Structures are given as C-alpha cells and as structure tokens.
Batch of 3 targets.
Target 1
Amino acid sequence: MFIQLTDEYLLGVQVIDEQHRQLCGWINTLHDHLSQKLSTQEITDTLNNLSDYTQEHFSFEEKTMHQAGYPEFALHIKEHRTFLVKIEELMDEYLLLDEEDLEPFANKLTAYLKEWILHHIMEEDMKIRDVLQNSAKSE
Ligand SMILES: [Fe+2]
C-alpha cells in the first residue's frame, strides 16, 4: 500500500482518524489508477473524488476546531486552503500533459500528496488533538 496510516498518525478522535484513513484511501486509489495507466477520464474522476472528499474532511475539521475554540484556527485553515489550490493546479496540469510526461507527473503528484497529508496530520492536526479530546469529553 502506498500510504499506510500507522498508529502514530492517530489523533484519538475517532471520526477524524476515520476521515484521515479515507483520505489516504483516496490517495492510494489515485496511486493505483495512475500505475495502472487508466484513462484520462478515470484519473480525472478519481482526482475529483479525492478533491471532493478532502474539501468535505477539511470543512468538518474546521467546524470542529472552531467549536472547540482552537487558537491557531486561522493558520490551520490557511494550510487547508493552500493544499486545495495546489490540488486544483495539479489537476489542470494533468489535463495538459503529453503522454511521455505522464509517469514523472504521476510520481510527483503522488509523492506530493503523500508528503503533504502525512506531514499535515503529524505536525498540524496533532496540535489540535488535546483541544479536540477535551471538547469531545465535555460533550
Ligand atoms: Fe487539518
């Protein structure tokens, strides 16, 4: 498997952990579809699914952070926005590719997604863990 979310990546907030798993699942699916050299339409569909799911997850995470009164809320949202813009750019880039550029692009794309998501969970989402766990307890 391309990305495997090991225990060290778990926040202990079940719903968010489950969403992170699904998000990595979409990146794994994209990785598989690119390696299998599926059609442009199929890859575009997968990219759209990944992008849709990412937006859904970010909205949920942001709502949860906001409700819990997380102090670095604005900064965290900015990271999410930057990632979504980057996905859009990469999707546009994909559609303009020549056949011979497909493989290096696929490698660059999946490496970027993997690095971003693992780094973001470990460095940023982990910061909200305590705030979220406390607010989950008081619910
Ligand atoms: Fe996040």
Target 2
Amino acid sequence: MTMDAVQDAPRLQSTGVPPSAGRASKRPHVTIRNLSKRFDKAIVYDNFDLDIPRGELISVFGPNGCGKSTLINMIAGLVPPDAGEILFDGMRLDEIKFGYVFQNYREALFPWLRAFDNIAYPLKMMKVEPAERKARTERLVARLGIKLDLNLYPYQMSGGQQQLVSIMRALVVEPEILFLDEPSAGVDVSLRKNMWKPVRECANPG
Ligand SMILES: Nc1ncnc2c1ncn2[C@@H]1O[C@H](COP(=O)(O)OP(=O)(O)O)[C@@H](O)[C@H]1O
Ligand SMILES: [Mg+2]
C-alpha cells in the first residue's frame, strides 16, 4: 500500500476473523493496484495498492473526508477510479456477487415494503421466482436467528432494527464480498452486537 502522498490517509485494520477450517485461504481475494482518484485538485488516492484476503473483516479508519467512502465506493463500482485496477480473484465486479450496506440506512430501506420484502428485494431484481425468494429469505433469517417481526414496515422499526434489515438485504444474495459504510453509526450499543453477528457469519459461514 502506498499512501505517502496522501494526507490524512485512511488506515486499514483486519479484525482478525479466522477463516473457518477447510476454507482457510490467505491469498488475496480483492487486489487493488495503482488506484488513483482525485476530485478537482484534491488527490484522494495516488497509486494506491491493497490486498484483501478472503474471509476477513477489514475495517477502514480515518478522519472525516479522508477517503473511506471513496475507497469502498470505488471497490463496489459506485464511483469510477481515475486509474488503476480492482479485481476479485482475478474477476471484474460484474462477474461476482456483492452486497452493500449504505451509511444512511434510514433512507436506504424501501418505506413501502415490509421488512421481509425489503430483505428479499435483491432476489426479485435477480428475477428469482417468488417461492424461491421466500425460501431463501426465510433460510437466511433462520440461520441468523434474528428475532424481529418481518411484517413491520421500516417506520415501525428502531434504527438498529432497520440496520439489521439492511444487512440482511445485503446478505440474501450470498455475496462474495460485503461492503458496509459506517454500519454502526447511530446504532445503540446493545444492537451493535446483534448487528455484527450476521456480518461475522457471512465472513465465516458454517
Ligand atoms: N462526488 C464528490 N465530488 C467532489 N469531492 C468529493 C466527492 N466525493 C468525495 N469528495 C471529497 O473526497 C474526500 C473524501 O471523501 P469521502 O471518501 O466521502 O471521505 P470519508 O468517507 O472518509 O469521510 C473529501 O475531501 C470529499 O470532500
Ligand atoms: Mg464516508
């Protein structure tokens, strides 16, 4: 990783979730090479390299405006880099399945859909049949042991519950990589614990 030219560079930290037995693999899953991005005169990334191993939770730390969201959004394909390459086991983003949990969960859920239908929504986009959508959503909820009335609409849920629904919506496609932008912002301490459970399960299934 080369970030010397960048002021207030974000720092990366692995939370050290060990890959489960039999799936252990430390080779890089995501490889970022020579990534550069500027907004007008502000250089946010300049020839940035990073390897992210499969099965690990990686956190990006740094002060406001240092480029955390820009990095995650470039990896997730929401912001185009000026230069550089991002590959997932050698594949491009459009060849893999990924999930994204937006920072602003209050606006990220569909207010007219119940929790269940919010979670199942990506499957609908993938043209999965209704019965299969229901089965897969129920399986995910059961696996995570989430205690939440899935008939509720977003306005009937607490912030933390909405965030759990956002995370489950990202997990329902069984993503190879999951992006979360400040997922615990505005979530109280007791719910943070619940919130991380599905994320850890995703990083380390079975
Ligand atoms: N669309 C944009 N247009 C212009 N500048 C932007 C844009 N997005 C981000 N920036 C700038 O890039 C820098 C990094 O932003 P961001 O990645 O959102 O920071 P963080 O998520 O670490 O708070 C900031 O200086 C911000 O003002
Ligand atoms: Mg941000």
Target 3
Amino acid sequence: MKPGNKRQTRRNSHFTPFVPALLSGTTGIRAAREMKEYSALKVLTNTLTGNRGWKPAWRKAEPKPSYDVIIIGGGGHGLATAYYLAANHGITNVAVLEKGYLGSGNIGRNTTIVRSNYLLPQNIRFYEYSMKLWESLSHELNYNVMFSQRGILNLAHSPAQLDDYIRRGNAMRLSGADGKVLYPDEIARFVPGLDLGGSQRFPVVGGLLQPRAGTARHDAVAWGYARGADRHGVDIIENCEVTGFLRDGGRVTGVQTSRGEIRAAKTAVAVAGSTSRVLKLAGIDRLPIESHVLQAFVSESIKPFVDTVVTFGGGHLYMSQSDKGGLVFGSDLDGYNSYAQRGNLPVIHDLMSELLALFPGLDRIRLLRSWGGVMDMSMDGSPIITIGPLDGMYLNCGWCYGGFKATPASGWCFAWTIAKDEPHAINAPFGLDRFYRGMLIDEKGQGPTPRLH
Ligand SMILES: Cc1cc2nc3c(=O)[nH]c(=O)nc-3n(C[C@H](O)[C@H](O)[C@H](O)COP(=O)(O)OP(=O)(O)OC[C@H]3O[C@@H](n4cnc5c(N)ncnc54)[C@H](O)[C@@H]3O)c2cc1C
C-alpha cells in the first residue's frame, strides 16, 4: 500500500466509524465484535461489578519452536511492526519477544509529543507520513489512542532564532506539513500563562506553531498495537529475554532466549536504548549509537492551564498538560552514557529554572513523579530502519528523543522492509550505510554529539 493511496485517504477522513465497517464482510464482523467488547453497557456493568468482567486485550502466548519473523522488543516500534506485517503484508506467523512486561521501555516513559516539524526532506517526509497514520490510528486499531491535535509551539527568543524557525516553517509547508509563525501578541492569546516580558533573560520574540501536532496516550498506543497484532494471530511473548543469536554460517537463524531457542527465517531487532547490548550478542560491537538517560516529570494536577505543547528555545524544555491535569515536561539528556532507567539532579535543577523563566506563576507547583528512559542516540540525530547488518537480520533504532511520534511510520516502514526485503522509499535514506558513505541526515547540524541532537 502506497502512502496517500485511496484506502489511506479514506481512513484519514475522520468519518470512518462502525457503520460502514459493519456492512463490509469480515471487517464488519470483527468491528461488531470489538464494539460489543467495549460497549457502553459493558462499561456500566463492569463499573457496578468491580471491573472483573474484562478479558485480556491480548493472549499470553507461549513460544513456538519457529516463526517466519521474530521481532525482538515489545515497545511501540516492535508491536507496530508486528501489526503492519500482519495487517498490510499478511505475515502472521510472527512472535514479538519482550524481556519485561509490555510497555516497560520507552513507549511507556515518554512525554507523548507527536509532531512533524522537521527541516530536512528525508525527516519531514517520514514524520509527516507518521502524522497521517496518527490521524487515523484510533480507527485503524479500533482502539482509542487519545491522539489530541492541540499543536506545538516552539518559542523563539531572538530575531535570529525566529528567522531560523521561519525557514523551517517554510520547508515544512513546501513538503505538505502545516506550520505557522506567531508573533508575541498572538502568543499571549494562545498561551495566556506564559510570561513574554522583556525584563526576562529570554524575551519571547515569536514562535513556530504546528497546529496538527499534539499528544497521545502512550500506553494506549502499545496496547492498541498489541491487541491489533494479537487479533491477527501474532504471538506476543512477555518475560522472554533474548540472550543470544542462532547462526548458520554468517546467517542469523533465530535467537536464544530465557525461555529456550526460537528459530526464524527473519529476525528483527527493535530494542531502542538496548540496541548496542543486543547487537553485541550477535558479535557486533561498533554501531553509530550511544545510550543516554532522558528524564520526564509530572506535576500535581491543576486546572486547565495550557492547551498546547510549548517548547523553550533558550535551552531545552517541552511542556504540555495531561488530560488528568498534571503538567508533563522534559528537558535534556543527563549527559553521560547509561543503561539505567533513572537520572540525576542537575537536569532537574536546569529544567525547573527554564520552566520558571517561561511560567513564573508555577513557582509553587509540586512535582509528583519523575522517571528516566534509555535513549538510543544516533550520531546524526536521525533513525535507522534497515536490512542487516547481518544476513537474516533487520534493524530499527536511533530514535533519540523522538521515537514515540515515529511509532506508526516506523512500524509501517520496518514491516515493509522485512516483508519485501527492500526499504520503502520513505525509509530508504535511513540505512546504516549512510554513516560509512558520509550521507548523514543531520537535522541540527550538530555532528556526533548526542546531547545536542
Ligand atoms: C523521558 C522520555 C521522554 C520522551 N519523550 C518523547 C516525546 O515527547 N515524543 C517522542 O516522539 N518521543 C519521545 N521519547 C522517545 C520515545 O519514547 C522512544 O524513542 C521510543 O519509544 C522508542 O521506541 P520503542 O517504543 O520501541 O522503545 P521501547 O519501549 O524502549 O521498546 C524496546 C523494548 O525492547 C525490550 N528489550 C530490550 N532488550 C531486550 C532483549 N534482550 N530481549 C527482549 N526484549 C528486549 C525492552 O524491554 C523494551 O520494552 C521519549 C523518551 C523518554 C525516555
């Protein structure tokens, strides 16, 4: 299926509810069954009976001796890949192997920002395609991923920075994405809690708004893809750690796991922050990836305060408000290599000073929770979705801070690459060989400096 074809365009319209589906054969029967599964009556009965009537959304599958495709990593990208392999390519003899529980990695730890406000054509094409998939994802999965297109506003604090944003906005519009420059009076109306005052160190001189950007419920994305893949017969196997690779000569023929050996014609790796560790098991110890900690924070719940995503251009801060009322925010990497899913205090200190520079009115709000995730930082800040690096192996990694928004397109493109043994035009630029050939996709022009990407 090509992006933007008839089926896709129809799904992108927001009018694909159950009625047409009910009229169309097997899809209709499935939609009707799933409707019944989450009907208003069911919600009501379960509310009155202690929520004991729900069935698990996916089976607890036991590993079989062999599969057509094994996907290592039950994060967003692994699950989306499994779903699109089955849904788009009819490949259903697939296992997703997850070492912990589903959603224990970055898919359940991110700040949920979805956007396609990139400058370089390769990135903008990929992330804009992802945005289009987001726009119909709840319908596609028949599962509410709570995608909320509340916009993202990148604040500029100097005329030079605003020029840079205007250039980016123009590039976005030329590539079919949406972008709009806002000036201080419009920003004051759009984000009333923001202090635009020139007395600050970082006066706001304007900003780039992408109205179609927004947020989604991260766990629901994992659960929705898992449920969708399971419905197609994919085995999702939790608590199954890959501990080694089976090889026949140079070719990868499966994996050793904490639950025994599993063979496969094709083995795909989608383990994000654990990429270097897992590929080391296959004897590959040089990759253009570094693992770093990134932290996220949630405040206590407050009344509706900000209904868009705001980013600070004088440093690194991104903030939105969750549907429960908590402010969700994040900042820079911790700045040292680590596989620990927790960070340190200096980042919290920087982040809070940035937050208060923008929103001094939040000075007495209390922080409720914080956590960390392990980021697979690539050396040019762009992802890798490719065949190889060994025969029989496929690799998906290098997501840096931005892999949540990429989840649908990443799964879609990776599934295509695995099924057809060639990349789709959208992910063709994201091969591993670009690092040998010097064809880097360096969005920010920062070179191999993870903390700046
Ligand atoms: C704090 C934070 C904030 C972020 N904010 C955003 C944001 O706002 N927007 C955005 O677009 N992106 C954001 N990201 C990035 C995004 O979350 C990730 O890039 C993306 O989720 C990575 O892909 P994934 O979901 O497949 O990874 P994961 O969920 O990490 O999946 C990888 C899985 O592989 C499993 N695994 C590892 N080793 C093995 C093994 N040996 N055997 C079996 N399984 C294994 C892990 O347990 C894990 O579940 C953020 C990340 C963090 C940590």
